[in-house]
Amino acid sequence: MAMQLTAFPLRPARVHEACGPLAPSFAAAAGAQTGHVLWLRESWRNEQINPLALSAYLDPAQILLITTRDQNETLAVAEEGLRDEISGLVVLELTAPIGLTVGRRLQLAAQAGKTTGLCLISEGMGSPAAETRWRCSAVRDAGATPRDSTLQCWELIKNKSGTIGSWHVRWSHSARRLSVVSPAGD
Question: The pTM is what?
Answer without folding.
Answer: 0.90
